[in-house]
Design a protein that fits this description.
This protein is α/β, with parallel strands linked by helices. Helices cover 24% and strands 26% of the residues. The chain has eight helices and 17 strands. The longest helix has 21 residues, at 158-178. The chain is elongated and about 65 Å long.
């Protein structure tokens, strides 16, 4: 087996390393270098950086046209493995390979699309999943080689859930690709649902939302775009929340919605909502650093008693 490994995001790093360790990767396909935050230097993808460290050849086409096909064919790959690559494979590109595999972090056909981890958190699911499927022309429509589910505790952020999935996916991918005879593809079964890209504007919260919804949004939108309520007309980013969404208690607060009631030890800032209290453990003002709740209050004492909107 000679794999062309197509990936861009950090979530695919353990899989890259596992397949390289097994001697299966012929070359790596990833996105081109992009300008950094300051717009000066070009920054390689995490996959390109690690692949070069491992001594692997890397191709970075802007488009998957004839030149990209020529580059891919020069490595004589027979298998395409994709994980968080970010581009759609057309029929001419797929025709280069005897077998294709896509790694997707949901229990397909649930949460097809580009943001399954975020959707898992927003939906307060009690389990997460990784699926390995054939690559089809339709988005995430391919048959399933294997799936793995795992329990969630209700305090995951998109960042921590991505890290967990990255390691589970590497083990599953290595098993499927080194024992293909044990993993015949089967059609997807069940109701189809979709995940989609998040607009930055969706990170603005409302005190009309309930405790469980805000709990989920704070975690789903971390580290980007970061959920916030407004304080003195500017965003107050809520970067971390205490406890599990599954254990969030509902009640009717006596304080007006949005009131910052108190600082309660390790639980953080206690904020009144329509159906209970949310406890925020890390906060950030625009252009400032994230701070634990106690440090934030030390520098912003007027937040206690304030009414967020």
């Amino acid at each position: 087996m000679r794999i062309l490994f197509a990936a861009t995001g950090e979530i695919a790093l353990p899989t890259l390393e596992a397949l390289h360790g097994a001697g299966l990767i012929a070359a790596v396909l990833t996105a081109p270098d992009r300008p950094g935050k300051r717009g000066r230097d070009l920054i390689p993808t995490p996959i390109k950086k690690r692949a070069l460290e491992l001594g692997l050849d890397v191709i970075t086409p802007e488009h998957l046209g004839s030149e990209a096909r020529r580059q891919a064919l020069s490595y004589s790959p027979d298998t395409l493995v994709s994980f968080c690559y970010g581009k759609i494979f057309g029929p001419k590109f797929l025709a280069l390979f005897e077998a294709t595999y896509n790694i997707h972090p949901s229990l397909l056909p649930k949460y097809r699309g580009c943001a399954p981890l975020r959707e898992t958190i927003l939906s307060a699911d009690r389990e997460g999943a990784v699926s390995i499927q054939q690559i089809a022309l339709g988005c995430d429509e391919g048959d399933i080689y294997a799936s793995l589910t795992f329990p969630l505790v209700g305090d995951e952020t998109e960042e921590t859930l991505s890290e967990r999935v990255s390691h589970l996916a590497s083990g599953l991918a290595l098993d499927v690709l080194t024992h293909p005879e044990d993993h015949a593809p089967v059609p997807q079964k069940g109701e189809v649902s979709w995940s989609r890209m998040t607009e930055k504007s969706e990170a603005e919260l409302s005190t009309e939302m309930g405790v469980k919804e805000i709990h989920a949004k704070i975690r789903a939108y971390y580290p980007w775009p970061k959920a916030y309520l407004k304080w003195n007309g500017e965003p107050l980013y809520l970067c971390a929340v205490y406890g599990s969404v599954f254990e969030a208690e509902e009640c009717t607060p006596s304080e007006p919605r949005g009131t910052v009631v108190a600082l309660e030890g390790k639980k953080g800032l206690k904020i009144a909502l329509k159906d209970g209290y949310i406890y925020v453990t890390r906060l950030q003002r625009p252009t400032r650093k994230e701070l634990p709740a106690d440090q934030f209050v030390n520098g912003n004492r007027s937040v206690i008693g304030a009414v967020l909107q």
